[in-house]
Structure formats: structure tokens, C-alpha cells
Write a structure and sequence with these properties.
This is Cupin. With 92 residues, this protein is an all-beta fold. It contains no helices and 9 strands.
Length: 92
């Protein structure tokens, strides 16, 4: 955890080796992922299907709350990304 306050939670995830994972989880908030380096993540959905995502350093992506998945490293090297969760809507 890098930052946590009433509006935002910022977490750095690090996978030392291929196959390391976040564990199954469901996102309770909208979030943005910012890769720290180029690499591959394998996303396992609730049905067991795996999607391979190629990420580029500094190129973020946004996801809505409710996503349920397990995120696995598809890299033969240590890989990290930053996750920013929006704990409140702008209107709150």
C-alpha cells in the first residue's frame, strides 16, 4: 500500500516470477492500472477463461467496479504495476 485515504487507495503489486498471482478478488471500486514496465499479465475470469494482456510501461487502463478475477504474471522476470482505486465517486 503506497497511499490510502478517504478517496483513494494506491497499491503497488509485484510478482517475482512467472505464475505469481494476486489471488481471486472482486473490485469494489472503479480502478486504474499503471504498468511500471513492459510485460504480460494473464487474467483468469470467474469462468476460468484466461486472457493474456500485453502491458506497456506508463500506459494506464481503467476498469469499472465489480470485476472478479485472479491476475497472474506471464513474465520470466519480476513484474510490477500500480493500482489506483477510487474509493468515492466524484459526486460524494
Amino acid at each position: 500500500m503506497l497511499i490510502e485515504n478517504e478517496r483513494t487507495r494506491v497499491t503497488q503489486w509485484y510478482f517475482p516470477k512467472r505464475g505469481d498471482n494476486t489471488g481471486w478478488h472482486r473490485h469494489a471500486y472503479d480502478y486504474v492500472v499503471v504498468p511500471i514496465q513492459d510485460g504480460v499479465l494473464e487474467i483468469r475470469d470467474a469462468n476460468g477463461a484466461i486472457t493474456r494482456s500485453e502491458l506497456k510501461a506508463g500506459v494506464p487502463y481503467f476498469r469499472d467496479l465489480g470485476v472478479e478475477h485472479d491476475v497472474l504474471s506471464g513474465n520470466d522476470f519480476g513484474f510490477a504495476f500500480i493500482e489506483v482505486e477510487f474509493l468515492q465517486n466524484a459526486s460524494q
